Amino acid sequence: MVKERLGTLMEWLRPFGIGLIVFLAHLLEDDATAQFHILGPFVVMLMCGTVAFEAMVLGETASAKIGYAPDRAYQIQSGLANAAIAVTALLVHVLNWGRFADATIVTAMLSFFLFSAGNHLLSAIRGGNFKPVNLLRPVLALVLMGFLLPPMLGALAP
User: Fold this and answer.
1) Residues 6 or more apart from 139 whose CB is under 8 A from it?
2) What average pLDDT does the chain have?
């Protein structure tokens, strides 16, 4: 029961967390590059960090929510990869590696979620996995890309 609630919390934490990050980026900074230095790495930490938590801690509950068979070894490895992306985003931000590092870590995250979206779509088409959370993953990946690409390109503009 606790794991199901935590899984639901993760689903709601992401959009509300992103909203808060956007608000703070615009509140604290006026420059597009400075805003993206907050927006990019913190969205990556939120998204990859929650995915890592789900994979490593919620395991079977996270699989059931999406409609996948549980595979703890793969989930843990996937969770560790997402944790590595989140930690790298933290380093990028704290060590102020610059706008290109911000863009690189966002690109790595977006690439993962785009590939993952393709996997979710394939599981719906080939496997008949029509669970709402599974079907929403490709849509939300595209929304996240559409949301992050314009500020990233603005920050990278000469």
Assistant:
1) none
2) 92
